[in-house]
Design brief:
Blueprint: H1 2-11, H2 28-34, E1 54-59, H3 66-77, E2 92-96, H4 108-125, E3 138-142, H5 144-158, E4 169-173, H6 181-185, H7 192-213, H8 223-239, H9 241-249, H10 262-275, E5 281-287, H11 292-301, H12 311-315, H13 325-350, H14 363-399, E6 403-420, E7 423-431, H15 436-440, E8 445-458, H16 467-470, E9 483-485, H17 496-506
Parallel strand pairs: 1-2, 1-3, 3-4, 4-5, 5-9
Antiparallel strand pairs: 6-7, 6-8
Helix pairs in contact: 1-7, 4-5, 5-10, 7-8, 7-14, 11-13, 13-14
């Protein structure tokens, strides 16, 4: 457990990585082939108020794979092996997309083009799917999958012969439609890398110091050695592990939807506004409770979601709901470090030489000075550790663009000096324009400066993407019915909230375009 605290900061960057870890033992082809309602070429008899069979394309996020939506896709159309309470089977044929093999080195439009080809091969290969109208098909997407789906729609419009349409409508979960600021923050010049290195250093020092203090030889190891060990370990990680983790976020495909990326702003945004005039898009969005950072890291690393076995997901694909364990652990660590800091600060005070002026070079005074210095350094180690932990959530929100500073000029300070019969007089006045100073005090010697106002703005978020980005697809429909409360980025595709939103989507609550008949 203690080792986890030291290195959990290195795992946080896998917010887009470990979201896709559920093991699935089947795929869409086998599901379609084993379902007698979907096999063969005979038409299916449906009620007049039904929509008939539809194709749904499930598209994962960055660094995902077949495991990402796999279990959810499977139980949506076939629960013969395990019933999911409150989640009825639907008359649907699902395609569980996987573009993990070519997202690393391909821009987003190339990823979209290749995935569209995969979809076309699958669609025309299965009986009856090639005859279903593509205007009735839709995509359910998570995270980066929303940008991929929008790029696919652009390719369909740009070259319909080479990239024939596969689906018309998009339902996104936590997609960074107006950009993912975490991509910007994780660049070589961004603030995330220095912060990770700092966290590694201070937490490693605290944990190493705690460990050596439990040994009989602990008192003989100076804090300078502990700090050197910590720096050496983190220096190695900063040259190996951290770059690998950051590269998992900053894939070639993801750079195209960094905040301010030209392809996102100049190509996808105007096209989406045009496209949604004839099609429909809905944006579901997660709003996690505080502390968002520790909750999203908890879901990435502290649950079965980080294990390919993932029994909780195999048994219940909507069971990823508990994210309290790590926040509790971090709080306990903060209290622990604070207690150790106070203890060592007190020992540093009582260990100071009492009569340094009388016996400045006495052996006892020298020993006391050395002890006091060691206690002071140890207190500093624990103080830096709990401060980093305490500020981590706030800093993380800055890295994802959910906490930002604003400053503006609210008038000007007018500092003027005038000479009167009674002597020098100083006038301090706030005016709206710098020129107003001269009007108020003609002939005065004035110094003018702006009056700055400062405000910190925090935005609700899912621990990775702010709400404004999750709901920012041009032309998409957003309502309070689409909020996923107390849900972080990882949970958006495998929690009870996911089940609730998918049920409402498939029941037609957000438009008949997404309606699926119950079996």
């Amino acid at each position: 457990m203690k080792k986890y605290i030291v290195f959990s900061i290195l795992l946080l960057s896998s917010a887009f990585i470990n979201a896709q870890v559920v093991y699935v033992s089947t795929d869409s082809l086998r599901v379609a082939g084993s379902n007698p309602d979907l096999a063969g070429g005979l038409p299916v008899s449906v009620p007049s108020d039904s929509v008939g069979t539809r194709l749904v394309f499930w598209i994962h996020g960055i660094a995902g794979n077949l495991n990402s939506w796999g279990r959810v896709q499977f139980v949506t159309q076939d629960q013969s092996n395990r019933n999911i309470p409150g989640y009825p089977e639907r008359n649907v044929i699902g395609y569980n997309a996987d573009y993990s093999s070519y997202e690393d080195v391909n821009p987003i439009f190339d990823v979209a083009g290749r995935l569209n080809e995969d979809m076309e091969i699958w669609r025309v290969a299965l009986p009856r799917t090639d005859t279903l109208p593509v205007s009735s098909n839709f995509a359910v997407v998570h995270s980066q999958g929303g940008i991929v789906a929008r790029a696919i729609r652009w390719k369909n419009n740009d070259d319909p012969f080479l990239y024939p349409t596969q689906f018309s409508h998009i339902a996104s979960f936590g997609s960074p439609h107006t950009g993912a600021f975490i991509i910007n923050s994780s660049s070589d010049t961004g603030a995330m890398l220095p912060w990770l290195n700092e966290g590694c250093t201070v937490l490693s020092s605290a944990e190493i110091k705690t460990f050596v203090n439990t040994k009989w030889y602990g008192s003989f190891i100076p804090t300078s050695v502990v700090s050197s060990l910590s720096l050496a370990a983190c220096d190695g990680l900063s040259k190996t592990v951290i770059p690998l983790i950051v590269s998992s976020i900053r894939k070639t495909s993801s750079l195209d939807y960094a905040q301010g990326a030209p392809k996102l702003l100049d190509t996808l945004a105007p096209f989406a506004l045009q496209d949604t005039l004839n099609t429909k898009a809905v944006n579901f969005y997660g709003v996690e409770e505080e502390p968002v950072f520790w909750r999203v890291v908890n879901t990435m690393t502290f649950t079965e979601d980080s294990n390919l076995g993932a029994p909780i997901i195999r048994n219940n694909p909507f069971g990823l709901n508990n994210d309290q364990e790590l926040p509790d652990l971090v709080n306990n660590k903060i209290y622990d470090y604070q207690g150790k800091e106070r203890q060592n600060a007190m020992l540093a005070r009582v260990s100071k030489p009492r009569y340094p002026g009388i016996y400045p070079f006495g052996l006892f005074n020298i020993i006391q000075s050395l002890l006091s210095s060691e206690y002071t350094k140890t207190a500093k180690i624990y103080r830096e550790a709990y401060r980093w932990l305490g500020h981590a959530n706030m800093n993380w929100k800055r890295f994802i663009g959910a906490r930002r500073d604003t400053a503006w000029i609210d008038g000007y300070y007018c500092h003027c000096a005038t000479f009167t019969p009674n002597g020098l007089q100083i006038h301090d006045t706030v005016v709206q324009n710098p020129s107003d100073c001269g009007l108020l005090y003609p002939g005065a010697n004035c110094q003018v400066g702006p009056r700055l106002r400062h405000q910190i703005i925090e935005e609700p978020n899912d621990g990775v993407v702010p709400v404004s980005s999750q709901t920012g697809m041009p032309g998409a429909r957003v309502s309070e019915l689409m909020i996923m409360e107390n849900t972080n980025h990882m949970q958006e595709r495998n929690s009870e909230q996911t089940k609730e939103k998918l049920n409402s989507l498939f029941d037609g609550a957000h438009g008949k375009e997404f309606q699926l008949d119950k079996k």
